[in-house]
Amino acid sequence: MSLEQEIKQTRPFKSNYEKALVNIMFTNNWIHFKQNKYLKPFDISIQQYNVLRILNGQKDQPITINEIIDRMLDKMSNASRLVDKLYAKGYVSREQKVGNRRACDVTITPKGISFLEDVTKSIKGIEKDMNSLSEVEFDELNRLLDKIRK
Amino acid sequence: MSLEQEIKQTRPFKSNYEKALVNIMFTNNWIHFKQNKYLKPFDISIQQYNVLRILNGQKDQPITINEIIDRMLDKMSNASRLVDKLYAKGYVSREQKVGNRRACDVTITPKGISFLEDVTKSIKGIEKDMNSLSEVEFDELNRLLDKIRK
DNA sequence: TTGTAATATATGTAAATACATATTTCGGAT
DNA sequence: ATCCGAAATATGTATTTACATATATTACAA
Questions:
Q1: Where would I find the HTH marR-type domain in this sequence (chains A, B) (predicted)?
Q2: Any idea which fold A45-123 has?
Q3: CB-CB neighbours of A61 under 10 Å
């Protein structure tokens, strides 16, 4: 369905620029809603899921809170409290970094890895809801989004 | 800058699909951050701003809470409390609908209209930060985003 | 060494979000 | 008329977000 129909907008957008702005936000909410739906049974928030994925990408290589923030999509979030939550669930370990008592080393635990595998398996469902673009189109979409941020 | 660099991702994405998912979310956060920056001086949240724009689009035609939800980007939000906030600031009026005492008519006030004009003038600044795509490219981006949601 | 700024993280908090649930009113069916 | 389910909005509340600020540690200059 076209964006205009989805948000019941009667008059057309002033420009493609303006529509694109709204379109990105609307599509993001659309994705967010789906992700939430798939994550809900696992009792984990999207932000926590993303942090866990970052840690998983590091394999057994520890990473500091600051490095997590660097890699996060939403830089504003409170990484240390997100790590708290994951720690409470036993999905990550956290210990003082040797040689720098300010920083701390965060690593995903085996429990975290296996949990993430389960979630990832389930969340593949989104892919089925989003298979309308060809590989070439996805590529073009990525090019445009990269370019929009200059 | 490429997405991979922005989020310091060392290994490449598994697919263009997966990158697109992350790219939409990242770009949305990027826009969100900018919008917040421009809205901050006006002491209004993005959601409130969007509701005000919906009401403005109606001109003097009143609209119910349910119709606002229909037109919102984020359907999950609490439209009635957003309207509360705008009402408290004097930007909207709200009265019981004639013929249906459940529903209520919400309209933007002259104060709301003039406030929105000020905000819109300021928020044009984002446009300057986002002028890297041509009209044709914005059009193509819109086509792809519309299509991704089937 | 001592003071000062920078770094890394943690904490406090007001507001917003995501839901669940309640309240009021309306539209039929019986 | 009255009962019942649906509709429209309001309210409750746990969690998350967006910041500001605090704490602790380090680096470095004088």
A1: 1-150
A2: Arc Repressor Mutant, subunit A (1.10.10)
A3: 9
Task: Give yes or no for B71 touching A (CB within 8 A).
Answer: yes
Q: Please, is B51 exposed, middle or buried when counting C-beta atoms within 10 Å of its C-beta (0-12, 13-18, 19+)? A: buried
B-interface mutation test, from A4, A25, A39, most B Cβ less than 10 A away? A25
Q: Which of B9, B73, B132 sits opposite A7 (nearest CB)?
A: B73
Q: Distance between CA atoms of A73 and B129, rounded to whole angstroms? A: 19
Quote the CA–CA distance of B150 and B147 in Å, as a whole number: 5
Q: Per-residue pLDDT for chain A (150 aa), expressed as one digit of tens each?
A: 789 988 888 888 999 999 999 999 899 888 888 888 888 889 898 889 999 999 998 888 999 999 999 898 876 668 999 999 999 999 999 988 888 888 899 999 999 999 999 998 888 888 887 888 999 999 999 999 999 988
pTM for this structure?
0.91
According to CATH, the topology of domain B44-121 is Arc Repressor Mutant, subunit A (1.10.10)
- Measured between CA atoms, the residue of chain B closest to residue A53 is B9
Structure tokens at A18: 């303006």
**CB within 8 Å of chain A, chain B residues 16-45:** 16-17, 19-33
- H-type helices in chain B, by residue range? 3-6, 16-39, 46-57, 65-71, 79-88, 110-129, 135-148
Tokens read off for A91: 């999905």
Q: Where are the domains of chain B?
A: 1-42, 44-121
The answer to whether the CB atoms of B23 and A137 lie below 8 A apart is: no
A119 CA to C5 C1' distance (Å): 44
Structure tokens, A104: 């701390």
